[in-house]
């Protein structure tokens, strides 16, 4: 939303800018929060086109979150921190309930305070000790991208986990996973540690991104890999394209130039040693079955060795030998 609206309910204002790296992530969080906190109002405002509100709330950085209670600033949060944002939203909801009690009668106030105190005691009793905290920290930083889920990628145990796996795989996001059903202490502890009540949960470099709804929103804003700040997995054609362009001159062969594993590869090495005084690159197809199998399709050339110059296929041994005899090979390589 771009226009500020006045409501009686507690409000969370999100001042943002589309160009900011955190825009997609934090906007997705703001989209998901109303489901968990229906009694609160959430608004996103473009800082650059809301000068009056920016001045009113003294917004100097994006993202900035302003928490309003009875149309007064109750708290604020600067920076992109989904966990802290969720925690503060929960506190705002709790505070609004307390105030609602004050507007009713003393008996209700007492009851509310009793409930709040009970929740605090339960929180302390259900808290996480230092040993468990360290285990959780180690787990969450054990992989660049980690999915805490119910089940495993090959056997998810809930629909949300299954959908999340599908989304990550279709977006070519490399990830590790942890089955929270195998350890109830971890399962309950992470909810407290990250202040996020449901699973699955996705972490990037140890930082909580969110659950399925947030990932869906991020994917709608563009490539999910870019929103998460991770590199997507290459398709085999992307990898082959990169490999064939890795060096100006590269030969895909059986073995290495220093130890060819077939007569054809040995002969092409002898030719290249003669016409490439500056050296050349090589790739041993015997060490990578996928490349060995798929390069034939990619190049539409059924045999090895294969010589590539500046990302273009030259051919196999017969073609290379003929080009050398006619003086064309050296000219092509030096050209």
UniProtKB/TrEMBL annotation:
Domain Thioredoxin: 8-87
Keywords: Iron, Iron-sulfur, Metal-binding
Record carries keyword Repeat: no
GO molecular function: iron-sulfur cluster binding; metal ion binding
GO terms for biological process, alphabetical: intracellular iron ion homeostasis
Ranges of residues in domain Glutaredoxin: 147-209, 249-314
Any one of the GO CC terms: cytosol
Family matches, as InterPro entries: Glutaredoxin, GRX_PICOT-like, Monothiol_GRX-rel, Thioredoxin-like_sf, Thioredoxin_domain
Protein name (database record): Glutaredoxin
Originating organism: Triparma verrucosa
């Amino acid at each position: 939303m771009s226009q500020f609206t006045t409501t009686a309910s507690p409000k969370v204002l999100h001042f943002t800018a589309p160009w900011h790296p955190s825009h997609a992530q934090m906007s997705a969080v703001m989209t998901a929060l109303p489901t968990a906190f229906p009694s609160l109002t959430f608004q996103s405002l473009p800082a650059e086109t809301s000068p009056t509100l920016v001045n009113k709330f003294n917004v100097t950085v994006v993202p900035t979150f302003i928490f309003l209670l009875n149309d007064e600033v109750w708290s604020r949060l600067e920076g992109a921190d989904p966990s802290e944002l969720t925690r503060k939203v929960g506190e705002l909801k709790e505070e609004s309930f307390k105030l609602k009690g004050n507007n009713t009668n003393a008996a209700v106030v007492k009851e509310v305070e009793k409930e709040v105190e009970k929740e605090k005691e339960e929180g302390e009793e259900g808290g996480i000790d230092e040993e468990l905290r360290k285990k959780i920290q180690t787990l969450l930083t054990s992989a660049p991208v980690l999915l805490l889920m119910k089940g495993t990628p090959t056997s998810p145990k809930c629909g949300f986990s299954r959908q999340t796996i599908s989304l990550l795989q279709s977006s070519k996001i490399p990830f590790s996973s942890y089955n929270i059903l195998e350890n109830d202490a971890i399962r309950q502890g992470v909810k407290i540690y990250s202040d996020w009540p449901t699973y699955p949960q996705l972490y990037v470099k140890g930082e909580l991104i969110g659950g399925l709804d947030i990932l869906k929103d991020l994917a709608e804003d563009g490539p999910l890999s870019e929103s998460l700040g991770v590199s997507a997995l290459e398709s085999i054609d992307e990898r082959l394209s990169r490999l064939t362009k890795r060096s100006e001159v590269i030969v895909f062969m059986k073995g290495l130039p220093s130890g060819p594993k077939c007569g054809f590869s040995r002969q092409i090495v002898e030719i290249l040693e003669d016409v490439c005084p500056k050296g050349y690159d090589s790739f041993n197809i015997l060490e990578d079955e996928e490349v060995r199998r798929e390069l034939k399709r990619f190049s539409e050339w059924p045999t090895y060795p294969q010589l590539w110059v500046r990302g273009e296929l030259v051919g196999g041994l017969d073609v290379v030998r003929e080009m050398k005899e006619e003086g064309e090979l050296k000219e092509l390589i030096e050209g």
